[in-house]
Design brief:
This protein has about 220 residues and is α+β, with helices and mostly antiparallel strands. The chain has 3 domains: about 35 residues, no CATH class; about 70 residues, no CATH class; about 70 residues, no CATH class. Helices cover about 40% and strands about 15% of the residues. The protein is built from 10 helices and 8 strands. A 5-stranded mixed beta sheet has the order 5-4-6-7-8, sandwiched between helices. A 3-stranded antiparallel beta sheet has the order 1-2-3. α5 packs antiparallel against α8 and α5 crosses α9. The radius of gyration is 20 Å and the shape is elongated. Bound molecules: zinc ion.
Length: about 220
């Protein structure tokens, strides 16, 4: 069972759109009743990588749900294989879940960093965290690094500081000796995530950003 199928079954197998044709689903290849593609994705849609038959007549009820349900693109979701389930998570919920340990082989996590922009769930992979354009491993190593990032936030480092080359002095100078040592250590341990555009860092910063802080900065 793939991630989309488990999510759809977990959601109660909804069929939100009329299926007026029959044939092979353009996305998953199943022979089914089909909904025309233009009713499911926008004219600008280009994400046909991995589709069974992109030039086909339409998509099956499951794929129509996966691509047309705006809520699936708007926020994070946890999908489990056994039993098949779909759970919506807020950013703090995602952070708690990823702090709790490595992602299991039968779980998939979808986290839109730019909500609404892309269809992530239909291409999600078991045992990985799907963000825009990439599926990330989440092992003990990533759990440890997320905790280091948590510690730096607790010590007063904001989102933009976390990706800087060195810990900003105006925060460091206010730290007591023990905190100063902790900050330097956490900073060094986070080095693997600190190169430009690192997707784990982008995910970790996103899920640990307090909602109210982010909104007030807009
Ligand atoms: Zn399909």
């Amino acid at each position: 069972m793939d991630v989309l199928t488990a999510a759809w079954v977990g959601a109660g197998s909804p069929t939100p759109l009329l299926s007026t044709l029959t044939g092979q689903c353009s996305h998953c290849g199943a022979h089914e009743h089909l909904t025309p593609l233009r009713a499911v994705v926008s004219k600008q849609f280009t994400g046909f990588d991995g589709w069974a038959n992109p030039s086909g007549r339409g998509v099956c009820p499951m794929c129509a749900w996966g691509y047309s349900t705006a809520e699936l693109r708007a926020g994070a979701h946890l999908i489990t294989r056994k039993p098949a389930s779909l759970t919506s998570l807020g950013r703090a919920g995602v952070a708690d879940f990823l702090r709790s340990g490595p992602l299991k082989a039968g779980d998939a996590l979808v986290v839109p960093l730019r909500p609404g922009r892309k269809h992530l769930l239909p291409a999600a992979v078991w045992g990985r965290v799907s963000i825009e354009d990439v599926d990330l491993a989440w092992s003990h190593q990533e759990v440890r690094l997320l905790r280091q990032l948590d510690q730096l936030r607790t010590l007063g480092f904001g989102s933009r500081m976390l990706t800087a080359a060195a810990p900003p002095f105006h925060v460091m100078k206010n730290l007591a000796q023990e905190q100063f040592r902790q900050a330097l250590q956490a900073w060094d341990l986070l080095e693997p995530w600190r190169q430009q555009g690192n997707p784990w860092m982008a995910l970790a910063v996103h899920i640990t950003t307090p909602t109210t802080t982010k909104e007030s900065r807009r």
